[in-house]
């Protein structure tokens, strides 16, 4: 279980991790340049080492992130801003100095913005996050607990998909027509998910969930010095990245485009 991994994020309140990720995302989205993105990315990797994030867990989750950032960069490379020397052109596709620079900046920025959302939540228990959102952020308990219940059911979708595949193969209807089989199986999975959600909603209402505007919490959520340090580290990362970008003359505010 990821919740049993003894890492610094697992000892930090998930609300603090969420706040730190939001601070970095908001700070880095203000400019599209490679200097601030690369600076923030380097500081985030240093934070990964300081928090003792398991390398295997980071790589398994970061691989998808690198793929998504790469695909975004390729799109910008082919259809981005045309400026400077044009290296290749075909119909709507144009690769120029401007599109190359913008693609590199976009790749680094996607990594820098999304990476904290990956490593800060390794080892985080969704129940602890719900406790923090309900007690510290004061979000409505009905919304928080309902979202937590739905999140718990997401993990069952993969198991349901496998069981549906086994059942279809046992009936001999999964031997051909892969596209048609996948569409039918996806519809069956949707129906099963709706039925399970309706059953869960009925069970929660039968137990009095949401009957009163207030509720008690089984586990109190606290905000300690580790949480404060993590949020301050996020502000430092953003401040250093912006300072480096402005100081080198690469600051490119998104509103100016």
From TrEMBL:
Q: What is this protein called?
A: Energy-coupling factor transporter transmembrane protein EcfT
Q: How does it sit in the membrane?
A: Multi-pass membrane protein
The cellular location(s) given in this protein's UniProt record come to: Membrane
Lineage, please? Bacteria, Bacillati, Actinomycetota, Actinomycetes, Mycobacteriales
Membrane-crossing residue ranges in chain numbering = 12-30, 62-80, 100-122, 228-254
Q: Where is this protein chiefly located?
A: membrane
Keywords for the protein's UniProt record, in alphabetical order: Cell membrane, Membrane, Transmembrane, Transmembrane helix
């Amino acid at each position: 279980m990821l919740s049993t991994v003894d890492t610094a994020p697992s000892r930090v309140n998930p609300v603090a991790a969420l706040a730190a990720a939001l601070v970095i995302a908001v700070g880095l989205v203000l400019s599209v340049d490679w200097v601030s993105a690369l600076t923030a990315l380097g500081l985030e990797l240093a934070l990964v080492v300081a928090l003792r994030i398991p390398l295997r867990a980071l790589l398994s989750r970061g691989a998808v992130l690198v793929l998504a950032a790469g695909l975004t960069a390729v799109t910008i490379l082919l259809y981005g801003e045309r400026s400077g020397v044009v290296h290749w052109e075909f119909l709507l596709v144009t690769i120029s100095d401007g599109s190359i620079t913008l693609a590199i900046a976009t790749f680094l920025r996607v990594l820098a913005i999304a990476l904290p959302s990956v490593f800060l939540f390794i080892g985080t228990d969704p129940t602890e996050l719900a406790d923090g959102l309900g007690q510290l952020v004061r979000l409505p308990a009905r919304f928080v607990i309902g979202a937590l219940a739905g999140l718990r059911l997401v993990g069952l979708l993969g198991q349901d998909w496998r069981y549906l595949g086994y059942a279809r193969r046992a009936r001999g209807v999964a031997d051909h027509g892969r596209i048609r089989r996948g569409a039918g199986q996806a519809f069956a999975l949707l129906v099963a998910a709706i039925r399970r959600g309706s059953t869960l909603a009925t069970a929660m209402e039968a137990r009095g969930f949401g009957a009163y505007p207030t509720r008690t919490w089984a586990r109190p959520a606290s905000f300690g010095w580790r949480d404060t340090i993590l949020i301050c580290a996020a502000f430092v990362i953003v401040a250093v990245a912006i300072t480096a970008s402005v100081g080198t003359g690469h600051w490119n505010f998104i509103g100016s485009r």
